Amino acid sequence: MAGLIFRHLSWLALLWLGGAAAMPTETNVDFYIETYGTLDRASNPRVAIAYRVFERLKAAADKSSRHTPRLVVIDGATDAWAIALPSGHVVLSRKALELCFKNADAELAQARLAFILGHELAHLAHDDYWHHEVEQFLAKAPDTQRIAHFLDQSFEAREAELAADDKGYLYAAMAGYPVERLLAGKGSKTDFFTFWMQQTQARITASHPFPEDRAALLRERLRMLQEKAAFFDMGVRLAHFHRCADAMYFLREFQRVFPGPAVLNNLGVCALQLARQAMPPQQAGFYWLPFLLDVDTRVPRVRGEVIESQSGPRFLKAFSTPPQAAGHLREALDYLGRAVAAAPDYLPARLNLATVQLYLGQPHQARATLSDAARLAPDDWQVKMLDALALYEQSDADVDLWPAAVKRLEAFQGNPPLPWRYNLARLLEIRPRSQDAGTHWNQLARTASQLPPPVQRHVCNHQSILPLPACLSRPSPKQTRPLPWRWPAPTGKAMPLTPTLRARLFAGWESIPFDWFKAKLYGFIHRDPNRETEVMEMDQFIQLQVTRKGLPAKAETLAAFCPYPLKRRRIVKGEVLTCDRWAVLVRGGQPKEAWWVEP
Hints:
Radius of gyration: 29 Å
Number of domains: 3
CATH topology of the largest domain: Serine Threonine Protein Phosphatase 5, Tetratricopeptide repeat
Structural class: alpha+beta
Shape: globular
Strand order of the largest sheet: 4-5-6-7-11-10-9-8
Strand content: 5-15%
């Protein structure tokens, strides 16, 4: 009987330190503050870390309309290691804080904190305070048979605690903490749950299988996330190759299990790309905005040659947005707004959100978004450029902000980035200051082949140093070396994958199915056992291939394998270099994986 009791009691391991006669848990935060006192974040670095972790988790966690979560770190000894109160407070004890840092580096300590606090935020989000009832009951009924009977009737409570484990783990992962280390710490065979039980329940029991059960559950959660990550990766690759209509299905599949800021940002960028495709070319390419390098690196949506007229709109906000494009913009606004809310320090989402707000004719909101971005990255040139454009867009009949916007753009020291120069030329052209603008158009024309197609067309139509056909033409192909890597399946041959051919090509591989009936998209993501190669099959045809084998050691050597200048696309923590149908993901100057897309 004692073993059964202790097994059930271990559900409370993250919440309280049990004893022969547990104290009732107070539900008023004032009790904890008055009884134990609080620890000040200004004088205690670990407390400051706990508050920072809590703020990141709040952004990622589900919300309850009944309260705003607040953290209180208390001093002194208490059986409540970490507890969620109906008032919305999460109380964290000094003992719990110290335990998170015990025998841990900074990364592991923060992952432990994130899980514990995320666990409590999950209780708050679902107004789940059953553990108060348990502790109050135990204080009144210490005899073991009555305890066992009560806990055996508490299946719903145990399920809620298990759900809080799962949600807390998910919140911590979404906030960017290395939760996998809780299951297998570096250099340690002890998972976090066993470690916690050994530390907190030494007075109750030695060891039992329950911590391993909890760890096994979260290992299954991690395995599922890793499997679904294949959909995120394929969605990103499809988006890079300008196939956002398909990419969004893959990204949404991942979003269902992990609605983190990265997938929300990418969904927002894809919706923005679809919006631009539904706009008149003059509106879509009015400015060269940062995200354009992310979505226009390969195949442009050409609607005929664009010869801009000086009589066109002088502001992006002056365009009448087609209904279809407006719908995509609203969708992008929703995704990116949620990405910013989930991760307030995630700069790419703020930049993309400001871009959407400019397309929607909301320059004031864009500047508010960029003000927050400037606090994150005060020296980022994209933030400064977008803010100058948003400033100009705030002009109205009584306020002319064109001079102030141009002054900001002209203040760049040195050789400005290509988008910066392009947008400066656009503003100079609008007034017009044709001679000043011409200097920048001619500078841009010298690199015309490296520009996104809409930008290239506008530059070539306004420069004066090259004949128009020469400016618009692609460079002559140069002699190249064969690719040093091999694709996992034949390329360039559109042949249906019969069951026999599929079995031969992917024998021993993992095949993850997908079937989105409404979109008539079905197929598999095939992955070899070592996760070095992947193939995405859609509608019985190979659409995209990935390999991590045989890549050169340095990104600078990739140019030798492409007959044309490589297209560069900035991404978070790296870049993608593209040559027609293949692209290479590069981080830290090293190629990490190569992608091939079928036409």
